[in-house]
Records
---
Amino acid sequence: MTFGLTSKDPLLRGSAHRLVALWKPLLVWHAVSGALLVLALSPLLSWGLRQELLRGETPVVANIDLFSWVLSPRGFLHLCSLIAAGLMTSVVRFTGIFLLLKAKIDGHIISVSLILRRTIRLLPRLFTICLVLALAGLLWTLLLGAGIFGIYQTLLREYDINYYLSHRPQAFYYAIAFLIAWFLICLVPSLLLLGRLLIVLPANLSGDYRLLPAIREAWHLPRKRTWRLLRLMAVLIIVAWLFQFMVNILAIAIARMTLQIALRLIPSVRVVLMVAGGLIILNRLFVFLFGFVVFNFAAILLVTFYYEETSLHREASDEPVLQVLRRGLRHVMIRGLRPIVLVPLLLAFSLISLGISAAALSRLPDLKPVQISAHRAGPPPAPENTLSALDAAISTGADFTEIDVQLTADGRVVVVHDADLMRVANAPLVVTRSLYEDMRALVQEPDDGSPPDRRRVATLEEFLDAGAGKIRPMIELKYYGFDPRLAEAVAGILAGHPSRDDAVLMSLDQPAVKQLKTLMPDLPVGYLLSVGVGELREMPGDFLAVSRQTANAAFLRRTARQGRVVHVWTVNRKQDMIDLIVLGVDGLITDDPALAVQVRDELQRMTSVERLLLRWIVLALPESEPETARRTE
């Protein structure tokens, strides 16, 4: 099969020479439109989330509740509107590129201010286009999700999902095969449809057609031409992705080598930090320029295809392509490499790097006291949520043992994570429908050499008694269908127990968090957040327990300003531990509490500058998997 994609392809050549010829106004438009969109859309999106989306008694929609909210008419419509507002960033930028290129083709004077005024007048039309795109995207996502849910209900419903993820029986591989097939069934026709409708946007913006007529005309274009556009776009995306991937690998290697050389040759921490700041600036500059080139080239390719490869508009006349391309590139190279230009750029780069480094040094915070929690009672190889795991957690010096509790059919509070015992004991007993005696007869896996009684399903009372005065309990109430009796039972067990004042409580369910705070207002109650939207300041509970992916620098800055305590799960790599502790988390939930305690204690003995420098070095080192086995949350 041949794609017809060579350096002699007139469509690619024409798009390339136009990108070179228009790079200055395109760069100005990229910067101006980006700044204006951030200023305009950020308040709009915040207002939408706060005033429209989540108005009422529940300021946050998170975890499993997020799916129910999206499927509701109100949630679906508001989410569609917000996605449309988010799409405006790309569509507005494309509109400016289209108007600039149209002015070039028509021989008119190119003016960014004029383009801006025309784009503002087109905003209602652009939002309509974005709304249609958002609606189509959401419907496609719901269709994909319905298929995934159907596969899950058919093949993976018998036992808890964690059993399938850890043991991977034959049904698991059948489900993976069906998931891949369903994804391709949804994706391939959608991409073909998108390829046939790509020229709707330039057709509509040119004023030649309204939206629906533009869709109709695009659909009736010769299939051979639309296939050509789709192949061009696909190859452009693939080549751009491969190029960025290779450049990222090269950049990481250069950064590691540069930092290692700097550490060996230059004893000054400030100089090393200046080098690190310079590398960050170069990386951000590359990301900006690469995104600028790819987006603009794809947009120009689409507009050029519309004007030159379809009969929907007259053909544009071109200048000799290679002459313009060579002249433009030579002009840029000669002007950019002159000493009068190059020297000030290097000087400015050095000053900016020094300024960033100095600012970073001046804002170095003191290290917070970080609490270490042993995930699911204690580290492997002890079976999770067992007294054996609790013994292992105590021996590591962890501050908390994080356990999951559920209510059995006979009203006992047991320490179990999954909905059933298939994964941990090879027994299909569902916790909420089983008697405690039947569960107590089982010995959990794996065998870590501890007595069998330390590996059986234990009650919350046994955990509190075994850990009293040795380690604090962090109790997560686990629901597979909300049951208010669980919180009442936990409160009853804690009442009068010596470990009560040491306990902290948390849950994924907002009603449980509110109920716990009502039953035990003097104890810290946390909201375990996997994914969600809403007003962070109004999240329920006294602290947050969030995933490693959620706990980025911006999130931690916001929570710190609001006085929120943040625990992060499940942090098993040394690099992540160092990064999060330096960023200022309050607690780490980990499968390797011994390593976390060691990292925390070593960081506490360092100066602020040493900690920051260590963080930069760690981020530049190759990633390594922890020796401790991972557990999914």
---
Amino acid sequence: MKFPGIHRLCIIVLVLFFSLYPASAQSRKQLPDFWDNMPHEELADRIVSAMTDEELLAQMLMFGWAGTDPSREVIRWVEERSLGSIKIFGWNTDNTRKVAESVTLLQRKAETGRFRIPLFVATDQEGGWIRHIKGLTSETPGNLAIGASGLPSDAWYSGYYIARELRAVGINLNFAPTVDLYTDHDSTIIGPRSFGEDARAAGILGMAFSQGSLAAGVLTTAKHFPGHGHTHSDSHGKLPVIDIDPETLRSRELVPFRYLIDSGVPAIMSGHLSFPNIGGDGKPATFSPYLLQTLLREEMGFEGLIITDDMMMNGATEYAGSVSRAVQMAIEAGNNIIESSTTPGFQDTLWTGNLTRMKQSSGFRDQVAGSARRIILAKLEYFKDGKNSIYPDMDKIEERIPDREGESFFLSQAVRSVTTVRENPAIPVSGQSILIAGSFSSFRSLGKQRFPEADTAGINNSLPALARRYDTLIFCLANRDNLSILKEMENSKTNIIVVSILSPVLLNEVPWVQNALAVYSYSPWSFIAAFGALAGDFKPDGTMPLKDMY
């Protein structure tokens, strides 16, 4: 039986299908792909030209999330809006393998986007005090300890081994080194995160740290431009105002950044910091076209990425009035990547307000497109150099973290950093009764390993009375609470040896302490080095990286 009507209908359908399919396939084929084989500059131009306003703006954004697993919201931002970058914070990282799994998941989502652009995956792994990727990663002596040794090789290898651990979990961008100068000794936000007070030394050490990290395959970020060290205010809580003149800024704060720029640092972080005597308007650096474009870009010649500090910090939002306005101002000032510790909703004004502005202002849209191009070009240069993989190797995480070579190095670095603060460091004499007191259990346990005959105790109000029963007290000074207990023992007949960790400036308030060492961190390697010095294994030859210390 023949069905001429149906036959004709099938022919029509097939003709329509094959006439439409090649055009659709051709249009998809013409869409630029991140992995196309062509010069980076040309490919970046093609991708940006093909992007929607939404895709351009999303490429500038970097979001974090709460919890160990990526939230549904951040997954949607990557999957449906082609988010450009993510940030791993300390609250995501107790399980090292889980971090690698999260990075893998989000990078696979990014790979399904129209242009298949990988994510920048960032964190803060400065070493020492700031260690956002926790879990199995190394606790290192940190920047002030590097400043005490004064060796660029210590800075280089610190950056190198820290980066090798980051690479193992898929992180490709580190918000380090911190090159803020420790000129305000009352600072509790910078402190031992700094290499010290000397601008030239900080520049050389920061440059070496950056080069070591790049050698291990992780991009670096010098921070916090133009300098967070000369204030004890914390931009998380309020906007710090730094009242220095242009000459001081150029001869001091900017010196380390010049070293990093000259060495090709890939990124610089703008700080929520007001310099009322610089540029004339007192705008935070994050929102200052003068500081970011005139000074950083034009005068200093920086060509890399400018990344904001977290836009959820009060130092930014209180000045701008809202997060949406803060993002707009940051874009207009010249930032390329806008960091947020939280993931906004899909209809948040951070997104809708700035999309609307893109449609209303061609100049604003051009700024967004220019930043998107700069980001994509940086990604092309990083991911397509044949060395840097997108995904972590899940089978080798436990083998690579902690880095076994790094452990040996960090112990030797800690030894080189130990500093005799007072001229007469006493060594516990065999046969004496010894009490080891500290807030850190690792300090007490490592001390006990080195001096098995010693007793241990925490630091609390009962310690002064307890210490009187011992010939020698080895006291770990970490903070002002510890300091208040130590002050109660000024007239004690017990031989008191203070091991200062983190900032050594607290020692200035106890000039009566005759025996003191500084080790600058609560890394176990720093504790081992301190007890090794007290046991006479070596003579400390670290140099105090701060001025005006007793």
---
Amino acid sequence: MVLQGDSPPAYTMFELYSPKRLILDIAEARFADNIDTAKMLPTNGFVTLKVSTLEDKTPQINRFEFKLVESHGYMVKRNGNDLSIQFFPKENAPPSNQDRQSVKTLKSDGALPTALYDIVVRSKGHKTEILLKADAPINNYREDTVTGRSGLPDSMFIDINNIDGSELVREKTIATNVDKIRIATRGTGVRIVFDSGQKGLFSYDIKTAPQGLLVVIDETPQVKNTTAEKQTASDPTLDALIGSSEAVITEKALSPGEDVTAAEAMKDSFGFSGYKSARISVDFYKIDLHNVFRLFRQISDINLVVDESVSGSLTLALNDVPWDFALDIILNLKDLKKEERHNTIVIYSAKNNFSWPERASDNLSFEADVEVIEQEALIIQQSVNQSAELMQAKELLRKAKIEEQNDDIEDAAMLYEKAFSLWPDNTKISNRLASLYLVNLGMNAKAVHFAKKSLKVDRKNYQAALYAAIASANMDQVSQAMEFFSQSISGTPPMKEALISYAAFSEEKGQPEAALKLLNKYSEVYSDTVNTMTSRARLYDSMGKTAQATEQYKKLLYSGYQLVPGLKKYIRGRLTMNPAQLTQ
């Protein structure tokens, strides 16, 4: 279907689910008088079209809503003033070369680049062969090396232009002299980065192969895995633990007998350039910035406030990237800044200044604790007269904040400790110390110590209880960790971070029933997320409760949530393994 115009269209597109829909919004457009929108798309068995006008939008938007069956995919392409929308059958597994060629022709009359669709790793003696599998030999490529800085490994990368790499996982762990392979879209092609797993760069050779490109790595007898070392050497931060607790649905090894390839694909689909948010594909052409940010509000479920001084339009096409990565690109392009706090992002011009309101609440969140040195966020004073010790403590807090802003965390912690010795009933200081020692310095024993100081003053300091629980878990003090976890979820309502972390901890310690109870409580209080639903399904799988697991996988598949490709493929694979339940 081709939408022909008399000027380049300003449009954006996104996907909705349950049922699957492609939404195409075109701004500042009108239909010619001879067009009947009800008859724009011929009757067929795989896609229907509904056209509507969003008159409440400024500028006015014409919306094309294509409802697709699951067996078909689509491609939208702009050619001058026209938009081409193409629909074609697809398979869950990578298609054969013959099928791939037919899809190529169907997509763009044979003009689509070669497809790169798999990474195959084979070990041969002291060599590792990595085949970048494509449907044709790859002759045109560029390779280069990068020396790692700031703790990053040395790496080699290959740039391949005019190739479709959308079917590849974003990361693949190798764990030899090559630690891992990362894939990123780059213009009309891809960049494939090989991170070294040893000190210095590995030796390699690159050859064109009949099925793509072959990379041969020379292995040394002693293989060093930098990723493993980093995981062992550093303790997880609070945010990282919460994130990993939620991501356990995709990163845990499958139970015996399950498909290892599917598990790796699901694991590799997460993590892109340090961004962890849900992935999206966007195609903006001369779209108003405010409409772009409204779309991010829908995708992220985070409050977005955009300053009135922000104006202009944007042209941007990104495929399968985290939404916060796409947002940062837009901010950089348009010389904008963002401030984030309390589930709210404020976007404003880099030329302006912004300050958060100074008012504090009785129940400060974890983010508010970061502002511990502000007088209003510490404690309401009951007396106008302040002691010399209190005044000295406040001065130490001011200096500690400066050191923290300069990333001198150890000096900041020392100043916070001195302030706490002068102001021992101020749990905001002891909470901050527990956070710094847990998150920044990896000193679990000290984190437990100051968390206990907070709990001694206030047994209902659930944030401190969570710090103590995580630090205890890091030290493998199971009984103490369970005690603190139980305390951390005893609030009304219980903290969502505590429920998720406790569930992950329970699962790791072989207590799936307890993990399920915690996830069910999370669902009852906060409603389900993609992570909790998939985690619940995986727990049922591990307990041998196939029917319940299948029910959860189906619920997730048709929930309407946007699923990353690897996770969707994994769920379909699990359902395929249980055909009896699938037909119920």
---
Amino acid sequence: MTDDDVSALAPLPKPPLAWSEREADAGVVAAVAAAHKLPEPVARVLVGRGVNSVAGAGLYLNPTLKDLPDPLRLAGLDAALDRICFAVDKSETIGVFGDYDVDGVTSTTLLTDFLEALGARVTCTIPDRMIEGYGLSRAGVDRLIDAGCTLIVTVDCGVTNHDEVLYAKARGADVIVVDHHTVPVELPKATAVINPHRPDCGSGSVMLCAVGVTFNLALAIRRRLRERGHFSTTRPEPDLKDALDLVALGTVADVVPLVGENRVLVHAGLRLLRQGKRPGLRALLQVAGVDAAQMTASDLGFQLGPRINAAGRLGDAMQGVRLLKSEGVAAANLAAVLDAENAARRSIEKKIVDDAIRQVEQSALLRNAKAIVVADEGWHPGVVGIVASRLVDRFGRPAVVIGEGGRGSGRSIERFHLYDALRAVKELIGPALAGFGGHAHAAGVRIARGGLERFRDALLNHAEAVLVPADLRRVASYDGVIGGDALTFGFVRALENAAPFGRKNPEPLFLLRGVRLRSAKEVGNGHLKGVIDPRSLPGVAGFVDVISFGTADRIAEWEGPVDLLGTPDLNEWQGRVSVQLRLRDFRPSSSSSPDAT
């Protein structure tokens, strides 16, 4: 195929979305619905997410902090406690080194706040993404040691930084690593390494992100100091419940599974966030236009998270820490700065996404490959991770996007372990892959000069070997069929009781069959909006709005009866609250089965 042939190819269509009904035991559904006075579809949501008993439903609906496991179960914790408590007792200066994403920023803020509340001397730093790159850096070590630190605690990074840990020790500082990324074969020679992915860690907490691990570390430190009589009426114990807003934000933004202890932590953190106690987050909610009293986990992931991330992507990630620790006018000013940086990030991101899609569509190799690797020296390294996510959503394949200086980021699909793939590639191409780190679904890479083609070929060959066509199929799993009687305030409120939702605990999705829509029109930036004709949906009370994001080009499909996959929720506009159906997908109605084939 010649270059002219490739450039003439039509744009690749977005892979179709198969619909599949999620399995749920009817007997358990009936028992849960009766015992907890839930609408049957809501009970079905719980059972579809692993609830298998009436008692289990109670725990799911009412998660409490008492359900959290003992923090001392984490491997490496004893050595960390000995060193940190010694530093506190001897008034050493403790340095906290965090990553530049939301998980790192919230971890840094939580640990710094906590140590300060203990009366410790503490300073913190976050690397400049463009200059220092990912992970513990020598420049960061120098900053902390020059500030007088004799102990450095890394959060959300450090588990692969063997050389930097040895450098810190050579300069006279001990290092404790607090991380959650996939561990290498050999751990760094730090004073302690706390990471639930350690092979010898039997905690079962591999789903925690860094701020969750940091929260457990703080709990354990407090317990150790309590046993030593550290606290008194003049030096009270810090209330770590006040840190749960940070834990919730970091956990949701890092897209770790929202199940088990993560769900407990986010549930409790959302309660705190709705009270608006932290001035910096309250200011950020205001610039994002989010009502604190009504906020959800989705707002953390799509409104607050991107604004804090924007600082680390385009500028100084310490602005995120300063915001979370600030009050009054300073908080308002910092929130406005982060909001502006997020707007700039979106503009840069859109152009790079368009360029990256064009690269895929104009490459005979990438059009048919099972993974995607695209690169451009002009792409800002701070947004390549977001671009990779957009490519995964657009093409349904793992994607690695490489920008200026060979710095890149990858995102993956459920059946492709990205870190393991990069490890296999490293064994093949050696120094061409200068560095990498991350986990199954997200990773950062650094490609050596001249190594791009070798990296691309090796990753695409690995994907070809381990993936089958079924792995690349996009599937929307739904929670049964509902009628118009589910489009009510009462039903939506009952559904909200099953929140929070997130990865591995997905937002409920229901099928509505044979619906006719009126007043279809394009709104916003390519969105589709209409109104359900009540005559086509028995039980519906009045007209209910339907919104479908990014599908304005499919408006013709709404001319006849359609089957809808959507989530009933509440929409507030100009002081009026109404029930709406937010769509994931739709298609012309037919008598054939809606299940995936």
